[in-house]
């Protein structure tokens, strides 16, 4: 019979990978702690209406990328394609936004039906920040600084660029949208198929078209800057000032618009030239209208989502995972003979009581001294503990250094703890 394979674009994280992910996750946990953010864990499945209402009906995500299905009760459900909608839904449902601010983070799988390629998967992972209840540019700066600190912690701050833009107010966007459509309508014949499709549904998205001809056309198009309201302009200036103040460099990109409808004012992306086409590793911005749009009181909000798969790729590409990530055995415990095994199992439990956190693997499945030694070596352990008939009779354990000297010494059961403390890397 043929074997069943995983679904295209959805991959397994094997032990070698999972240690790397755990390393990245521990850095995420550290940096969110450093800024006083709390984790929120949300369902992977939500009502389809939630995403339609928040992300927007005519976005790529809702039009083409969602995994939507009727459940057994014929309710339309969707595997979450992003985290913000669910986070706002939960915050509203549990009253987290009543006269209070919130600083939240989440981590987990997201699902989009896309063409799988390097850095683009159908099940992928996002780490995201959402902060609620704060209107000023200070919190915009904070979420950007938090992301920058993570890049520094991970060691690739010098390989990423912060792109920054403001989308102004919804009134300004509506006016600009009209001006842009008026302009592009007279050049319809020069627009590619994608841009034509977006001309009336989502014209701002044309701004970040990758098509060269479209980009040339846009050089002469009306500029959003003329439609920017004063409040948004001041907000943006103050944000830039804060980033300057913190020594965070950025590139202004007036064509940066986001693929999700709920953004206004600040938008930003962190990009890298190390990953080919899938160059954005983190994207976010302000979405002051979304809470109200989902049935709450008007609540300012700003956040970002990081593409964790792409960050793992970047760390791999740049060789930035520490060498000892995945080292999970320090001590390999061998016992040759039935009585010896019984004793060793009991003894190993005592050692675990005495050394919480000791990375010790017990030989299972018996075997000769030689075959156990091979397994000990393969485990990556620094030392082997060995109990054979002689050792058991004399109430001793052999300690063998597996990595440097190869030296083997015999110690009494009662001295083992002291010896182990000396021999293990601190
Ligand atoms: P892209 O332009 O790459 O399709 P997007 O604008 O659709 O990105 P967002 O919805 O803003 O992406 O998601 C934030 C981040 O999540 C992206 O910058 C990227 O790093 C990551 N991401 C999005 N879609 C995928 C995917 N299919 N596979 C892996 N990572 C993804
Ligand atoms: Mg996309």
Automatic annotation (TrEMBL):
The keyword Ligase appears for this protein: yes
Record-annotated Aminoacyl-transfer RNA synthetases class-II family profile domain positions: 1-315
Broadest EC class assigned to this enzyme: ligase
Positions bound to L-histidine: 82-84, 112, 126, 130, 258, 262-263
EC number: 6.1.1.21
PROSITE patterns linked to this entry: AA_TRNA_LIGASE_II (PS50862)
Record-level GO BP terms: histidyl-tRNA aminoacylation
InterPro entries: aa-tRNA-synth_II, aa-tRNA-synth_II/BPL/LPL, Anticodon-bd, Anticodon-bd_dom_sf, His-tRNA-ligase, HisRS-like_core, HisRS/HisZ, HisRS_anticodon
Chief location bin: cytoplasm
Pfam families, per database record: HGTP_anticodon, tRNA-synt_His
Reactions performed catalytically: tRNA(His) + L-histidine + ATP = L-histidyl-tRNA(His) + AMP + diphosphate + H(+)
A GO term, aspect molecular function: ATP binding
Protein localization: Cytoplasm
KW Cytoplasm (keyword) present: yes
Gene3D superfamilies: Anticodon-binding domain, Bira Bifunctional Protein, Domain 2
Alphabetical list of HAMAP family matching this protein: His_tRNA_synth
Family: Belongs to the class-II aminoacyl-tRNA synthetase family.
UniProt-recorded name of the protein: Histidine--tRNA ligase
Native organism taxonomy: Bacteria, Pseudomonadati, Pseudomonadota, Gammaproteobacteria, Oceanospirillales
Gene: hisS
